[in-house]
Recover the amino acids of this structure.
């Protein structure tokens, strides 16, 4: 199993700090969960049915013509490589590690590329995979560039796979409206923006025949009845969407400011996290963990990612810990 954020119970055991005393900033998930809609008994008692309102609400919310709900975008990440014969797959790196892992496991040759290498490599790839905005760096590739890459790949029967797990905060930058084109696949995550990662809900947008193949591979009833009810209610709450976007943007700006004050100016980020490259990343991770603050550590390159504090008290706690770290490092 690959390393991920959110492993709070492991930190509890490692550092001997009770769970209720931790400030968990290790995942790029909005710390303000949407209200849980009432779940009727039928949702628990009956087998789930498609087109019960969830797909319609998701199509309206995302602006997508065709989509498939999946049990978190992770389910699609693991399954999509099985829908192509083994080929050469480029991954824009650094990247969410599950992407290259899934393609390698399915027998594909994976080439990790930086931004400057994509143009030269593109005509020798069968698939290009990227996260946009990127996890963990927050880098964002423009719509125009992505659609150009897609056109070049599609002419040879290739795919462009864009994971937009962190795109809900900046929907104008999405290419989900183009996902009906042959060879263009867009993934969206429900849990991050809505603050409900435990629901395990995601969506794949692509042309109809590919969605049908993916649905057959994944099998029936991939989304539970309660998750379908909850997802539909969240998608239909337009006022809450605008409030969440504004709240995340403001909190991310404050987080960036805190890091700058501590001499740790972010190297990247988005409205759900900030990213700091530093050769002392492991030390910083440990320093904060010993104070009950969990952040996400990366080794290649050495960096930490910090999610959003939920309230003023959490911000003050982090600010004090960063100030203490700055003093120790001086």
């Amino acid at each position: 199993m690959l390393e991920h954020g959110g492993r709070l119970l492991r930190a509890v055991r490692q550092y001997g700090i009770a769970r209720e005393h931790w400030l968990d900033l290790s995942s790029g998930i909005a710390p303000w969960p949407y209200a849980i809609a009432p779940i009727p008994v039928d949702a628990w008692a009956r087998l789930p049915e498609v087109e019960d309102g969830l797909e319609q609400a998701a199509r309206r919310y995302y602006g997508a013509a065709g989509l498939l709900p999946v049990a978190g975008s992770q389910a699609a990440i693991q399954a999509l490589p099985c829908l192509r014969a083994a080929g050469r797959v480029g991954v824009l790196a650094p990247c969410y590690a599950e992407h290259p892992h899934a393609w390698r496991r399915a027998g594909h040759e994976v080439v990790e590329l930086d931004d400057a290498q994509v143009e030269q490599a593109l005509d020798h790839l069968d698939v290009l995979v990227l996260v946009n905005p990127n996890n963990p760096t927050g880098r964002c590739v423009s719509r125009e560039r992505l659609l150009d890459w897609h056109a070049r790949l599609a002419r040879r029967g290739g795919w462009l796979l864009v994971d937009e797990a962190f795109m809900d905060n900046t929907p104008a930058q999405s290419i989900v409206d183009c996902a009906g084109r042959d060879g263009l696949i867009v993934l969206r995550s429900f849990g991050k923006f809505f603050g409900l990662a435990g629901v395990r809900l995601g969506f794949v947008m692509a042309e109809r025949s590919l969605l049908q193949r993916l649905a057959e591979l994944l099998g029936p009833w991939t989304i539970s009845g309660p998750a379908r009810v909850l997802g539909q209610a969240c998608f239909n709450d337009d006022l809450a969407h605008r409030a969440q976007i504004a709240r995340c943007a403001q909190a991310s700006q404050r987080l960036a400011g805190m890091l700058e004050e501590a001499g740790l100016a972010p190297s990247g980020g988005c409205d759900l996290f900030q990213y700091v490259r530093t050769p002392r990343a492991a030390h910083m991770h440990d320093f904060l963990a010993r104070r009950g603050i969990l952040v996400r550590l990366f080794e290649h390159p050495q960096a930490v990612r910090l999610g959003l504090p939920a309230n003023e008290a959490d911000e003050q706690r982090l600010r004090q810990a960063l100030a203490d770290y700055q003093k120790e490092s001086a």
Q: What stands out?
A: The chain has a mean pLDDT of 96. The radius of gyration is 20 Å.
